[in-house]
């Protein structure tokens, strides 16, 4: 039954009623689900770190280092646009079938990436891949929510932590080794058999229930407005400051148009009975503040994951394999933090608390990364602390939002988390790249890319240090936002 638009007390009462009606999930049924969704989760997680170590090699092969940030931004932009749409489609037509469709698009985009002959071809193919990738984590999380009641999810968190750990650890290492020994194109080719196996396993699940509201539409104008606004805003953030001045006519026109599109989108979505954006969930304080925390913290996390290997290769003149190995402390800390957080929440039933302690630790690590020399030991140690802090956010945010949203809106709830995460990742990567590439000239970047003068390397290193400190300041704002989340119990 669809939950009413609640006042805060009603929102808090709904999960209790739901828990009373739900019994423990049989372990055998959980195993059946886990073996079906682990590959989509693996593909979604590994794609975040797989290309981080390969970016300099891709730039040497295809050219245009400045545009290389869009290898990540293009994928994240497409994922951002599709995340809420997958949530609606999954609720309406079944989450199993929506996940299979997402896997098909992801595989098609991977094939196009492997065949890319230029930087912008690769970026366009990454956007196609992102159209499918946007549904992998959303629909996997929604399918988990169908089977596992909220109170039991922390108990099973370790199993999904293992999948995330394998993806996070093998991503940068495999990316570095493949690039050093073969070609970056193989990083996309390997997705094809994995996506086929994942689709076969998911299709063996029983059909998902449908929760379509009468008269519900897909809100195509809302989707188009959101795509245009997000794309133009990210393009402006990426280009302003080095392709044209911040206060130039081109910059003001792009920013003004993006703002106008945002106003039109907000007006339209407020008048729709079933809007593209999950505004009915964002009216709940727990979901609104959790979404803001996820957006800000993910912006810092993706800036670190995507650009730390670039910094290590350009600033320290390491190779791709070495850069991949130095991401291991960060990803290992992330997995450990996630698992420890899951166990803590299982004991306390309070998913709203761990980020209040984890995010200040991240902010400190990022600030020190910007202040200290970038030696291997310093990067590794600070990466562990940053990973531990980041690991407190994602598992708890899923629990908070899914618990408050209720069982019939699991797709929209998962889409809300994914949307916040994708927006943060897109904006963080774009802004971080604009900051670094704005502080260093094209000649300095090219010299550092090809192992040039010490002066150029020093300038590029200083640009990265300032950007790391800016990411630390952003994480402090995220730490404040998470303190605003009301008490939530599962």
Any descriptors?
single chain; 490 residues; mainly alpha; Growth Hormone, Chain: A; 78% helix; disordered N terminus
Notes on the protein architecture:
- This protein has 490 residues and is mainly α.
- The chain has a single domain (26-206, 220-482), classed as Growth Hormone, Chain: A (Up-down Bundle), CATH 1.20.1250.
- 78% of the residues lie in helices and 0% in strands.
- The protein contains 21 helices and no strands.
- α2 packs parallel to α7, α7 packs antiparallel against α14 and α13 runs antiparallel to α14 (320-326).
- The longest helix has 31 residues, at 285-315.
- The chain is globular, with a radius of gyration of 21 Å.
Total of DSSP H or I helical runs spanning 4+ residues = 21
N- to C-terminal separation? 20 Å
Query: What general form does the structure show?
Result: globular
> So, CATH architecture?
Up-down Bundle
CATH topology: Growth Hormone, Chain: A
Strand composition percent: under 5%
Low-confidence stretches: 1-21
Assigned CATH superfamily: MFS general substrate transporter like domains
Question: Total strand count, please?
Answer: 0
Q: Report the major sheet.
A: none
Relative helix content: over 70%
N-to-C order of helices and strands: HHHHHHHHHHHHHHHHHHHHH
The tally of structural domains comes to: 1
Arithmetic mean of pLDDT: 79
Quick description:
The chain is mainly α and 490 residues long. 78% of the residues lie in helices and 0% in strands. It has helices spanning 8-21, 27-49, 55-62, 69-93, 95-114, 119-147, 153-181, 186-189, 191-203, 220-239, 249-271, 279-282, 285-315, 320-326, 328-348, 355-371, 376-390, 394-405, 410-439, 442-449, 454-482.
């Amino acid at each position: 039954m669809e939950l009413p638009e609640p006042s805060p007390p009603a929102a808090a009462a709904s999960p209790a009623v739901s828990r009373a009606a739900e019994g423990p999930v049989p372990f055998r049924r959980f195993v059946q689900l886990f073996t079906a969704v682990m590959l989509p989760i693996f593909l979604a997680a590994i794609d975040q770190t797989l290309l981080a170590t390969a970016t300099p090699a891709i730039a040497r092969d295809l050219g245009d280092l400045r545009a290389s940030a869009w290898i990540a931004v293009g994928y994240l932009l497409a994922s951002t646009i599709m995340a809420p749409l997958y949530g609606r489609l999954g609720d309406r037509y079944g989450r199993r079938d929506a996940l299979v469709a997402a896997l098909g698009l992801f595989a098609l985009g991977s094939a196009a990436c492997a065949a890319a002959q230029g930087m912008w071809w690769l970026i366009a193919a990454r956007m196609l891949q992102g159209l499918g990738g946007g549904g992998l984590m959303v629909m996997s999380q929604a399918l988990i929510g169908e089977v596992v009641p909220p109170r039991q999810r922390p108990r099973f968190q370790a199993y999904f932590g293992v999948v995330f750990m394998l993806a996070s650890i093998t991503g940068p290492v495999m990316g570095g080794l493949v690039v050093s020994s073969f070609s970056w194109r193989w990083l996309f080719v390997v997705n094809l058999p994995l996506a086929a196996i994942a689709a076969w396993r998911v299709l063996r699940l029983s059909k998902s229930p449908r929760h379509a509201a009468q008269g519900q539409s897909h809100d195509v104008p809302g989707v188009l407005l959101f795509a245009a606004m997000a794309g133009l805003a990210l393009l402006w953030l990426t280009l302003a400051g080095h392709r044209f001045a911040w206060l130039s006519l081109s910059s003001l026109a792009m920013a003004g148009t993006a703002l106008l599109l945002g106003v039109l989108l907000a007006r339209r979505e407020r008048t729709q009975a079933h809007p593209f954006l999950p505004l009915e969930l964002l009216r709940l304080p727990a979901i609104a503040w959790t979404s803001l925390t996820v957006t800000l913290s993910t912006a810092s996390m993706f800036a670190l994951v995507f650009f730390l290997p670039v910094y290590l290769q350009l600033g320290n003149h390491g190779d791709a394999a070495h850069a991949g190995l130095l991401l291991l402390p960060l990803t290992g800390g992330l997995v450990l933090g996630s698992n420890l957080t899951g166990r803590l929440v299982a004991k306390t039933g309070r998913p709203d608390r761990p980020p209040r302690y984890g995010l200040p630790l991240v902010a400190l690590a990022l600030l020190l990364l910007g202040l200290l020399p970038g030696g291997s030991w310093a990067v590794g140690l600070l990466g562990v602390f940053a990973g531990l802090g980041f690991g407190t956010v994602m598992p708890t945010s899923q629990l908070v939002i899914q618990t408050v949203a209720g069982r019939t809106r699991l797709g929209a709830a998962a889409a809300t988390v994914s949307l916040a995460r994708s927006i943060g990742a897109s904006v963080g990567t774009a802004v971080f790249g604009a900051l670094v590439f704005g502080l260093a000239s094209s000649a300095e970047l090219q010299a550092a890319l090809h192992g040039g003068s010490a002066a150029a390397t020093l300038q590029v290193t200083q640009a990265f240090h300032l950007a790391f400190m800016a990411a630390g300041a952003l994480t402090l704002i995220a730490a404040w936002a998470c303190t605003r989340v009301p008490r939530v119990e599962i």
